[in-house]
Amino acid sequence: MQTKRLALYDAAEVIADVKKAVDSGNEIDYVTFMGDGEPTLASNLGEMVEGVRRFWGGRMALITNGSMFRLPEVRMAATHFDVISPTVSAGDERTFHQLHRPLGSLRLDDVLEGLRLFRAEYRGQIWVELMLVHGVNDSLPALLNIRKAMKGIGADRVYVNAPIRPPAESWVRPPTKEALRQVFDIFPEAINMTGPEEGPFIRNEGEREAELIEIAKNHPLREDQALGLLAFAMGEEYARECLQRIVSAGRLEVKDYSGTKFYRVPLGRKDGHDE
């Protein structure tokens, strides 16, 4: 864990990859910056987004945990995006540390103050994500604290989410139906994103197995999603054989979560390749 910003990836390479995707002819709604980690830790984030702006006139979004917005340089880089989507899932220090497990020196008040400062400088859209975990932040006091914490951020949208895929910790569970009803009493404007995902993942023109594993590194796939991705190129029967072969090789593992079968890259083996 760290809060020091570094040039983690070469900006020119990122810009070139985005241009390749834009030039592919696929329909694109947003060019979205996210990361295997926190994207605002990239000290050259501003250089990347400015480079993309030279050939992309469409909308751009940034998905962030909001932890670095206390820094003026982060707020400046973020102003280039049309939409910023920070996570605000805690309204008190104890819940913040239990849910997010941040670096010990990182304080919730500093995170919220950074987002408030950004709102005062920013004219784009802020779409806040509220991730609910049973027994952690779904009680009435916790939700009221979160509502209070969001004051000053000026969110244009609030998306309520829940852990619908296998989480990092086995004890994590989605909120009950009763708790969810309470959430929308307190956040009547919120958009409910707690149901299963619908529709296919974006399909690149590259090799389907590699694409499947790339997605599964950070986004465990339901069985129907994994099969759908493979079947698009090879048919349903062979897709099942292919998926089983990938699991047998240890490149993916099967995880049952809430009665649904998911496929993910084994923990500690993020490359998805054979050893």
Description:
This protein has helices at 11-22, 45-53, 72-78, 93-100, 108-121, 140-150, 177-186, 208-216, 223-234, 236-248, and strands at 30-33, 59-64, 83-86, 125-131, 157-161, 191-192, 221-222, 253-257, 260-264. The chain is α/β, with parallel strands linked by helices. The protein has 2 domains: 11-192, Aldolase class I (TIM Barrel, Alpha-Beta Barrel); 208-264, Winged helix-like DNA-binding domain superfamily/Winged helix DNA-binding domain (Arc Repressor Mutant, subunit A), CATH 1.10.10.10. The protein has a 6-stranded parallel β-sheet with strand order 1-2-3-4-5-6, with no helix packed on it. A 3-stranded antiparallel β-sheet has the order 7-9-8. The radius of gyration is 20 Å and the shape is globular. It starts with 10 loop residues before the first helix and ends in an 11-residue tail after the last strand.
